[in-house]
Amino acid sequence: MNSSKLKFLVFMAMCLAVISLCGWMGSGLDGFIDAPTQISPGADDIVLTGKDSLEFRWRGAQGARSGHYEFKLYKSYQTTAENLILKEDYQSGIFSAKLPVNLFEKGQVYTWSLREILIDGQRSDYAYSSFKVIEK
Predict the structure, then answer these.
(1) I need a surface site. Which of 52, 65, 122, 127 has the fewest CB within 10 A?
(2) For 133, which DSSP code?
């Protein structure tokens, strides 16, 4: 094999290695999906006196790639199956949910979690926020 042919084969092998490495590195970045942003309620003391509902608001992170949001409400700081009191799915384009006040008890802490499910099935990290109902 002459030297120019050998140099060409080495060059091509290096190009393939770089392309392969870029694809591997890029897949890790593409696989990271930001959680949606919870707007309210945040880490607040909530007063429900005179209200018929409590509104939960959020902002999506994925735009047109979003399929729906998975919303969960827990009666505690702990997000375990035993403490789960509500699980709902909301279609993309919906950024709030009003829940009736009869779900909540005075003096109780609640945690809500939210994650975005993309149209291709990928899932974001969860976003969490807790609040306490101080008056009802």
Answers:
(1) 52
(2) E
